[in-house]
Every structure is written in C-alpha cells, then in structure tokens.
Design brief:
By secondary structure, this protein is mainly alpha-helical. The chain is 69% helix and 0% strand. It is built from 13 helices and no strands. It has helices at residues 7-10, 14-26, 30-38, 41-50, 59-74, 88-98, 101-104, 109-125, 127-133, 136-146, 154-173, 178-190, 194-207. The protein starts with 6 loop residues before the first helix and ends in a 9-residue tail after the last helix.
Length: 216
C-alpha cells in the first residue's frame, strides 16, 4: 500500500533516492561513516552530480540533502574533528555539494531559491566556520566563475549573484577584515562583467551604512 512505502519508494527522483539510501547506510554505522570519509565519497558524488541533467537536481534532492546533513549534524560522532563538533563528513558535503556553486548554477528557479535559503541557515548557524572555509574570497570567486551575465541564462545568474553578494554582506556585517575589503576592491577592479562590477559596488556602498544584520 502507499502508506507502507519507504521514503525511498515515495521518492521519484533517482538522485534523491540515492541520497536517502546513503543516509540510511550512515545512520548508526561508524564503519560506513569512516569508509565514506576515507574514500573521499562526497568528493566523488559531487563530481558525478556536475554531469547530472539539471532536471534531476530538484526539490526532492534538496530535501534529501537537508535530511542527510541533519543526520551528520546530530547523529554522527565527530572523527578527529574540533570544528564546532561537526564531523568531517559534514564538512565534505558542504565543500563538495552544498557550497559547490558550479552544481547549483544550472538548476531551475525554485530549486535555486531553496538551496540559497538552506545555505543562509547554514551560514547563520555556523558563521565562524563558514567564514573561514567559504568566506568573502570564496564567494567572489564563485560569482566570477558561475554568475556571468554572458551565460545562456542571465536571469538565473543574477539571482545567484545577488544571493552570493548577500552572503558577503552578511559576513562583513559581523566585522570587516582588511583582507576582505582588499578582495572586494580587487574584484571590482579586475572583473570584466559590468553587472558583476555594478552589484559589487552597490554592496560595498551598502556596507558603509548602518543596517540590521540579515541574510538574503
């Protein structure tokens, strides 16, 4: 019956099904956790996802990734980790999947908004960690590489670009660092994309004003 279906059986998206199965394999199983970590499993999965058709990167996948991250946040014992009690596996899924903007630059609008909102939660809840690993320079590089107005979907690039600049603004609202200011000025000076340049200037101007701390 429909009521007896497992989460995997209820999920139509093949990639989301795989993530759900992976979650079940990792749950309460240190051996599988250590195996995935030692074989750089999330790096491999992230590389494979780049070649997945965009329509497979849908809301079911986002929800499956959120569920997996929840497991890694609370149920997985940290393995040689001192960063805010987060496991290396959680760091890996952040690095190779969730903060991999090449992957999320090609999804449709609804999925992109859901992904951005989830990143906002991650950054807000783990500000110091994210700022160190995925800070201003990282975000500016993502804009330069994946948010050009010259790509096939300029509206898509604009949404992602504004969100990433919003993350930069959020970081700097919590203390401006000289290296970050230099990174922004360098970005403005060297980027050939006019839209990127104008939005970066706009964000820099906003940072000079007093405003409540908020995420996009």
């Amino acid at each position: 019956s429909v009521k007896d279906e497992t989460p995997v059986e209820k999920t139509e998206n093949r990639v989301a099904r795989f993530v759900i199965l992976l979650e079940e394999m990792l749950r309460d199983c240190p051996t599988n956790q250590e195996s995935l970590l030692s074989t750089n499993g999330f790096a491999v999965i992230g590389a494979l996802l780049i070649n997945i058709p965009p329509d497979e990167l849908n809301m079911q996948l986002v929800k499956a990734l959120q569920s997996l991250c929840l497991l890694l946040s609370y149920d997985v014992n940290p393995i040689n980790s001192t960063d805010e009690a987060y496991s290396p596996l959680l760091h890996d899924i952040y690095q190779h999947i969730l903060f991999n903007f090449e992957l999320w630059s090609k999804v449709d609008h609804e999925v992109r908004i859901a992904h951005i909102q989830y990143l906002s939660v991650i950054i807000k809840d783990n500000l110091q960690l994210c700022r160190r690993l995925y800070g201003v320079q990282f975000m500016l590089d993502a804009v330069r590489l994946y948010c050009s107005s010259n790509i096939e979907q300029p509206d898509t690039a604009c949404v992602l670009r504004r969100a990433i600049f919003g993350f930069v603004k959020f970081y700097m609202r919590h203390g401006i660092q000289v290296a970050e200011v230099k990174a922004i000025l360098s970005f403005i000076a060297v980027t050939p994309d006019l839209d990127q340049k104008l939005e970066a200037i706009e964000r820099k101007t906003v940072l000079m004003k007093v405003a409540p701390t908020s995420l996009p």
